C-alpha cells in the first residue's frame, strides 16, 4: 500500500498552479447528460472521483475522452441507460447529480447511495424534498434507490438548510422540467454558479445563481459547447495555509481570489501576509501566528473543507484557538491523529479548543478523508522527525498530485510503498503511545 512520508520542512518558497475544482467537475460532468451535443470541459482534474464518473458515463453510453491537452470531451448523444452502477455511485459523494441530470430524459433513474467522505451524518433529505416537489417518487432498496417521474414539473422549493448538493441537483432537474422552478434558500457556492453558467451557455434559462434565490425556466433542450471549470478554491486554500505552518512564501496561481475571501480574511487575522492579483494569491509568514476563533459556514463563510488544514495551522499559533464546526459537527477525525503527534486539542461537542505552540512530533497517522489528509501533511511539515500518513487513497480523491506540488515548494515529502499489515501494526502502536 502507498504511504506518505514527510519531514519537517520550510521555509517554503514557490508557486503552485491550482487544478480545476473537483466539486464543480462532479456537477458539470453529470450536467452533460442534459445536453444534446458534445461538451468540451477544460480543467477537469485527473483524480479518483473523476475517473469513476468517466466509468459511469461509459456504462450509460456517454463517452468521456481525455484529450492530449487535458480537455475532456463528453458526448451524451448515445446515452441509452439511467441505471447507475451501485458500487460506482457509492464510491464517491456526488453521484446523485445523475438523478437531476437524467430524470427528465429517462423518467426513471436507478442509483446506489452516495458515498464520499464519512462525517457520520450526510443526509439527502433536501434532495428528496426538492425532487419530490417537482413530481419525483423514490423507492429505497438495501443498497440502491430508484427515482421516477413521468413528468418533471417546475416547483417552488424552500430548502430547510443551505445545501450546495441539493441546490445543484434540483437546478439540474429543473433545466428540462416543464415550467418554472424557484429554489429559495439556495447555496451560493461558486460551484453552483459555475454549473449555472455552463448550462446557460448551452441554452438553459437560469437566473440568480450566486444569490439565495435561483429561478429556472424549463426549456425543451440544451445544446453543448465548451466550458472551463473554475479553479479549486479548497486546494488553493490549503497551499496558502502551508506557508503559515512551515514559514516562507507560497503563491497559488490560476485561482479566483474572490472565491477565497473568508479564507484570506482568516489567514490575515492569524498573521499571514497576503497579497493578491487578478488570478494569484501569495501568502507569506515569518512564523509568528496568532490564535483565532473560527466558525465554519456555507459560502461565503469559512468553508468546512478548509477547517481541517486550518486546525493543523492553529497548532502552530501561540494561544488558544477555537474552531466551531457548524456544517459537519463530527468532522474531527483528524484531531485524534494530531494528538498522536503531540497537539494539545480538546473537543467539546462540535468545537475544538486548540492550545497552539505545543511542539509536534512525527508519528504514524491515518488520513480518513481528503482534507484530514491535507491537515496531516501540513502538521507533518511542522513536526520533528518523520511523519508517516496512511489513507493516501482519500487524498487522491481530491488532489491530482499533492506530493509533487508540495515538493515543488520545498516540502520534504515522498510517496512510498509498504506492506499493509506492517502499516496497520505501526498505526496501532502509535495510537497506544499517544
Ligand atoms: C461533492 C461536493 O460538492 N462536496 C462538497 C459539498 O458536499 P454536499 O453537497 O454533500 O454538502 P451540502 O452542501 O449538501 O451540505 C451542507 C449542509 O447541509 C446538510 N444537508 C445537505 C443535504 C441535505 O439533503 N440535507 C442536509 O441537511 C449537510 O448535512 C451539511 O450540514 O458541500 C460540502 C459543504 O460545503 C463540502 O464539504 C463538500 O466538499
Ligand atoms: C467532503 C469532501 O468531498 P465529498 O463531498 O466528495 O466527500 C471534500 O472535498 O472535502
TrEMBL record:
Subcellular location(s) per record: Cytoplasm
UniProt: phosphoenolpyruvate binding residues: 22-23
Domain of life: Bacteria
Every Enolpyruvate transferase domain range: 8-402
Active site: 117
EC annotation from Swiss-Prot or TrEMBL: 2.5.1.7
Alphabetical list of InterPro entries matching this protein: Enolpyruvate_Tfrase_dom, Enolpyruvate_Tfrase_sf, MurA_subfamily, RNA3'P_cycl/enolpyr_Trfase_a/b, UDP_GlcNAc_COvinyl_MurA
Residues at which UDP-N-acetyl-alpha-D-glucosamine binds: 93, 122-126, 305, 327
Protein name: UDP-N-acetylglucosamine 1-carboxyvinyltransferase
Gene: murA
Amino acid at each position: 500500500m502507498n504511504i506518505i512520508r514527510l519531514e519537517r520542512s520550510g521555509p517554503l518558497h514557490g508557486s503552485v498552479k491550482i487544478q480545476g475544482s473537483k466539486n464543480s467537475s462532479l456537477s458539470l460532468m453529470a450536467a452533460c447528460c442534459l445536453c444534446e451535443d458534445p461538451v468540451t470541459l477544460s480543467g477537469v482534474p485527473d483524480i479518483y472521483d473523476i475517473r469513476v464518473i468517466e466509468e459511469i458515463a461509459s456504462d450509460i453510453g456517454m463517452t468521456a475522452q481525455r484529450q492530449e491537452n487535458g480537455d475532456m470531451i463528453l458526448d451524451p448523444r448515445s446515452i441509452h441507460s439511467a441505471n447507475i452502477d451501485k458500487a460506482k455511485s457509492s464510491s464517491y459523494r456526488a453521484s446523485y447529480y445523475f438523478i437531476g441530470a437524467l430524470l427528465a430524459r429517462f423518467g426513471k433513474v436507478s442509483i446506489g447511495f452516495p458515498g464520499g467522505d464519512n462525517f457520520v451524518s450526510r443526509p439527502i433529505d433536501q434532495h428528496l424534498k426538492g425532487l419530490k416537489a417537482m413530481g419525483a417518487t423514490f423507492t429505497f432498496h438495501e443498497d440502491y434507490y430508484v427515482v421516477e417521474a413521468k413528468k418533471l414539473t417546475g416547483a417552488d422549493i424552500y430548502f430547510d438548510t443551505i445545501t450546495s448538493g441539493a441546490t445543484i441537483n434540483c437546478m439540474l432537474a429543473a433545466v428540462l422540467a416543464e415550467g418554472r422552478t424557484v429554489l429559495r434558500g439556495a447555496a451560493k457556492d461558486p460551484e453552483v454558479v459555475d454549473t449555472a453558467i455552463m448550462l446557460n451557455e448551452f441554452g438553459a434559462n437560469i437566473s440568480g445563481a450566486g444569490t439565495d434565490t435561483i429561478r429556472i425556466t424549463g426549456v425543451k433542450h440544451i445544446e453543448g459547447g465548451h466550458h472551463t471549470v473554475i479553479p479549486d478554491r479548497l486546494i488553493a486554500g490549503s497551499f496558502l495555509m502551508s506557508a503559515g505552518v512551515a514559514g516562507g512564501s507560497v503563491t497559488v496561481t490560476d485561482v479566483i481570489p474572490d472565491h477565497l475571501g473568508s479564507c484570506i480574511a482568516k489567514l490575515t487575522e492569524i498573521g499571514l501576509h497576503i497579497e493578491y492579483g487578478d488570478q494569484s494569491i501569495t501568502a507569506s509568514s515569518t512564523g509568528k501566528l496568532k490564535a483565532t476563533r473560527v466558525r465554519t459556514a456555507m459560502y461565503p463563510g469559512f468553508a468546512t473543507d478548509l477547517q481541517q488544514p486550518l486546525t493543523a495551522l492553529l497548532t502552530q499559533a501561540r494561544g488558544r484557538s477555537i474552531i466551531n464546526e457548524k456544517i459537519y459537527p463530527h468532522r474531527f477525525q483528524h484531531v485524534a491523529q494530531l494528538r498522536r503527534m503531540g497537539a494539545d486539542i480538546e473537543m467539546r461537542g462540535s468545537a475544538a479548543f486548540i492550545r497552539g505552540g505545543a511542539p509536534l512530533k512525527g508519528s504514524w497517522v491515518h488520513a480518513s478523508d481528503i482534507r484530514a489528509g491535507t491537515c496531516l501533511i501540513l502538521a507533518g511539515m511542522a513536526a520533528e522527525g518523520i511523519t508517516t500518513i496512511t489513507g493516501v487513497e482519500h487524498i487522491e480523491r481530491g488532489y491530482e498530485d499533492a506530493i509533487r506540488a508540495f515538493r515543488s515548494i520545498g516540502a520534504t515529502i515522498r510517496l512510498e510503498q509498504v506492506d499493509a499489515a506492517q502499516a496497520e501494526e505501526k498505526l496501532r502502536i502509535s495510537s497506544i503511545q499517544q
